[in-house]
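During the reporting period the student researcher (J.K.) took over the structure-prediction task from the postdoctoral fellow and processed the backlog of single-chain submissions. One of the processed entries is reproduced below for the supervisory committee.
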Amino acid sequence: MKSSQTAVTVLMADDDEDDHILVRAALAESKLLIDLHIVSNGEELLDYLYNRGLYADKSKAPIPGLILLDLNMPKKDGLEVLKDIKTDPTLRRIPVIVLSTSENKEDIYKTYDLGANSFITKPVKFAALVEIMKSIRKYWFEVVQLPLDGVEKV
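J.K. obtained the following structure tokens:
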């Protein structure tokens, strides 16, 4: 098992400010040592990944080891962004966890068809969100090997 003492960059794409606060707090509660970056829509997510616009400085937009992706976002929704990420040879190795309020089976099937690594329905209670973040820490940062060196920005 790997040490969980190394900070990993996590990029969260979600347009809900309350979710930003809750996820940040849940990550703190779960004791997950991460460098959390948050974007509010699909276009901003792609700008971050491709170092465009506000994210042109690569030191302020490090390559994420994991993306937490909401489906319902303005400008470009999560399904469109997921397709863009998973069809791009420079980005497709980045694990994407869909974190959505949806429980719709069609949404679940579409995300997996497009290459999502996991689909998690956002819980209503904060304690449940903390447990999810602990599970993410355990699985994605202690058990599996992330392809951090195999992801290059263009």
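The committee noted the following: The domain at 8-141 is CATH 3.40.50.2300 (Rossmann fold).
J.K. will present the remaining backlog at the next meeting.
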